[in-house]
Amino acid sequence: MANEMDFEKPVLELRTKIADLKEYNAKSEVDLSKEIEKLEQRLEKLEAEIYGNMTAWDKFQVARHPERPTTLDYIPYLFEDFMELHGDRYFGDDAAIVGGIAKYKGIPVTVIGHQRGKDTKDNLHRNFGMPHPEGFRKALRLMKQANKFRRPIICLIDTKGAYPGRAAEERGQSEAIARNLYEMSDMKVPIISIVIGEGGSGGALALGAGNQIFMLENAVFSVITPEGAAAILWKDASLAKKAAESMRIAADDLYELEIIDGIIPEVRGGAHHDLKKQAELIDQTLSKSLHALMAFTEDQLVEQRYNKFKKIGVYEES
């Protein structure tokens, strides 16, 4: 990962130096407080320079950071009384998608999100956050339940994409994604989707047909990974950095294109640096969005969602 995060190396090196000086200062009789203060000021300027000028490729690497918070990391900070529900009632339970019922500031809600693993064993269990059809069908089952009991739906998106293996295709991967989009379009309750990491292709869209879509500042949202795009366009996956810049996958690009409704700021350096603070930043946007949407009637929610997606894209009438 170190080679992939080269842009961050000067910051990490300076942080390590400051930490070493603080440890030495605490154990020795020499007062290094002034030197430490100067280095901390230098660090603040360096962080502002580096993190304030990140490229799309830099953000893509931060979005894939192995320590980046996942759906299950955020849930305890955002919701109360979360009870996870399992299974699609057809085939089985897919650990790449988690979901259940909870309360958000006293309001009953349904929470659904992609879930990556924290280590090799967990990643194998969760299929690296790439759902099979039963994962999407589980999500849809929970959405239909939410629609029946008039609970708002909150989706946290974080996947490289739907699993492309043979077993997934045999069980109807494309149909499951398409079914989610079809059913979500007519839900009578507010749907809020937040891209917390990587929003890849149909795997992300299956949880992304919301009334409002938000992205964390360093999250990405794309039809294909930069590696995949480079392999198709130039027959060379090593040109992924070039592809990332041309694909406009970063939050600021997608906000400019009016594909998303807002950008949630991240703590300096990325969400993995301070989970609690990052949850607070998400909470501010989520609270405002949910209360605004709850003022809509059922018909208005459906119409607003329809119009939102209808206006995406540029076309010319002949």
TrEMBL record:
State how it assembles: Acetyl-CoA carboxylase is a heterohexamer composed of biotin carboxyl carrier protein (AccB), biotin carboxylase (AccC) and two subunits each of ACCase subunit alpha (AccA) and ACCase subunit beta (AccD).
* PROSITE patterns named in the record: COA_CT_CTER
Q: Where is the CoA carboxyltransferase C-terminal domain?
A: 35-292
Please indicate which superkingdom the organism of origin belongs to. Bacteria
Report the function annotation for this chain.
Component of the acetyl coenzyme A carboxylase (ACC) complex. First, biotin carboxylase catalyzes the carboxylation of biotin on its carrier protein (BCCP) and then the CO(2) group is transferred by the carboxyltransferase to acetyl-CoA to form malonyl-CoA.
**Reaction catalysed by this chain?**
N(6)-carboxybiotinyl-L-lysyl-[protein] + acetyl-CoA = N(6)-biotinyl-L-lysyl-[protein] + malonyl-CoA
Molecular function via GO: acetyl-CoA carboxylase activity; ATP binding; carboxyl- or carbamoyltransferase activity
- The EC category is transferase
As recorded in Swiss-Prot or TrEMBL, the protein's gene is named accA
Q: Which residues form a coiled coil?
A: 29-56
> Where is this protein found?
Cytoplasm
Q: Which organism is it from?
A: Listeria kieliensis
Q: Which GO terms describe its cellular component?
A: acetyl-CoA carboxylase complex
Question: By what name is this protein known?
Answer: Acetyl-coenzyme A carboxylase carboxyl transferase subunit alpha
Please report which protein family the annotation says this sequence is part of: Belongs to the AccA family.
**In its UniProt record, which GO terms are filed under biological process?**
fatty acid biosynthetic process; malonyl-CoA biosynthetic process
Listed A to Z, the keywords are: ATP-binding, Coiled coil, Cytoplasm, Fatty acid biosynthesis, Fatty acid metabolism, Ligase, Lipid biosynthesis, Lipid metabolism, Nucleotide-binding, Transferase
Database matches in Pfam families = ACCA
Which EC numbers characterise this protein's activity in its record? 2.1.3.15
